[in-house]
Amino acid sequence: MPSHYDAIVVGAGPTGGWVAKTLTEAGMQVLVLEAGEPEPMRRARLLVHRVRRRAGYRAERDSGALARQRVQSNCYAWSADPAVFVDDCDNPYTTPAGQPFTWIRARQVGGRLAVPQHGLQFFRMSDFDFKAASRDGFGTDWPIGYADLAPYYDRVERFMGLRGNCDGIPHLPDPLAGEPVALSQAERHLAQKITAGWPERRLIVRRTAPAPIPIRAARATGKVTLRCRAVARQILVDRVTGNARGVSWIENGEEREATARVVALAASAIESTRLLLNSSCHRHPEGLGNSSGTLGKYLMDHTAITGIRGRFPQEVVTRKPRTSWAYIPQFRNVKRAEKDFVRGYATSVFSMGSVVALTVFGEMLPRESNRVTIDPVRKDRWGIPIPRIACSHSDNERAQARDAIDRCREMLEDAGCTLEPQDPVLAPPGLAIHEVGTARMGSDPKTSVLDPYNRCWDVRNLFVVDGSCFVSQGVQNPTLTMMAIALRAAENIVSLRWRNEL
Q1: I need a labelling partner for 205 at 20 to 30 A (CA). Which of 10, 176, 177, 432 fits?
Q2: CA gyration radius for the chain?
Q3: Residue 28 burial by CB count (10 A; 0-12/13-18/19+): exposed, middle or buried?
Q4: At how many degrees (to 10) do helices 185-197 and 395-414 cross?
Q5: In sequence order, what are the beta bridge partners of 324?
Q6: CATH superfamily placement of domain 4-119+212-299+434-498
Q7: How does strand 244-251 pair with strand 254-265?
Q8: Would you say the C-alpha torsion 144, 149, 151, 155 has a positive or negative sign?
Q9: Any alpha helices (H) in 55-124, and if so which ranges?
Q10: Residue 181 and residue 322: Cα distance in Å, rounded?
């Protein structure tokens, strides 16, 4: 294995895959470090698990599996493929007393998007989200806007083969959809009732695609070296220049390292920030890239509410029922401030024959107190200091949740549904599995970690291209925006390289 590359990318999920694809297609030699297993082994393990399930095995009844994956087993998709999720005993983290955070982690080529039963929902953000602070006065605007990302959204959606419709909703931009999708019979009934009762609300068809795994396209160039079971330990820093010179990692019990002209982190919001904090050195004593003091701060995860279920009258679903899902975009605080909270929420509508279930994702406000630090004592199985995650909902998120539950019940009842006797509650932070923030981008190095192209202000050959860079969250599932941002950042890396500015 060579020891020097044009670039090292940490993480082979959707954002790391886009960076590797873009750089290799430009002729660069790239090392990708992935903590999960090689794809052939992952497929073999999944096949074995499915055979065991057909024979009657249930991970959710296996006390040994539950003990080792106490946190991960809270994920709705865990039982479908437990091996892809981390072992919580080997990969601990800490939280303050009374502040639970459910950190769901899947380690594999393709990232969490490739987990069986992933929802695969892809929605664009707009200037309604990027410039939300200017509208309601809370937080900070992003240093980029929709016009900066629109061409990258187009290219990512084309690559994925996104299916969906153009709906003409200003704050939820239309996709570049290759194939239209029709609402199911139950969804059409609910959509008609919602539009008739509340003109400001819409139920639209899903926007979805197969799980995008761009690292495979990168590998097809022949210019990628993919190291699996490689747990990144530290970013190596040149003592003279202060630039990143490479990455060290643990692989099969051995510590290894490689050097590169460029380092790009795509390990997920918390993992990338953990790596930066664990890379403190004499030039960066408070964490690599942390001269602003904002590294680790402003952690966000969507509020998540489930347990809102109903059953349509028999006459509504007269055709052969099918499983489907649709979407109700944000309708609170859109044209004007109308409630006792800022921002809002969106709702996924899952219909299974006559049964309908609603899942609400609401925007968590960016707060300095919601943050990631390094535990001063504990380490993981590989001897790497673990993160300490302090994150809690504010009164604003709780007010959003109360309103969302009432409005969801209201819409189902108006559609003639019989509500099931469940008590929907606001899940603890982390369980939406949409965590972002902690290494925000900005236009001022005094208040942000990254510049508008995801380049670290303090270390100019270091880029952070995952959800860490988010300034605020919006209500949309974040991965489409992450991929568009990663593609934009990667093209900037290529441009800088050819101008010899790295």
Answers
A1: 432
A2: 22
A3: buried
A4: 110
A5: 351
A6: FAD/NAD(P)-binding domain (3.50.50.60)
A7: antiparallel
A8: positive
A9: 63-68
A10: 14
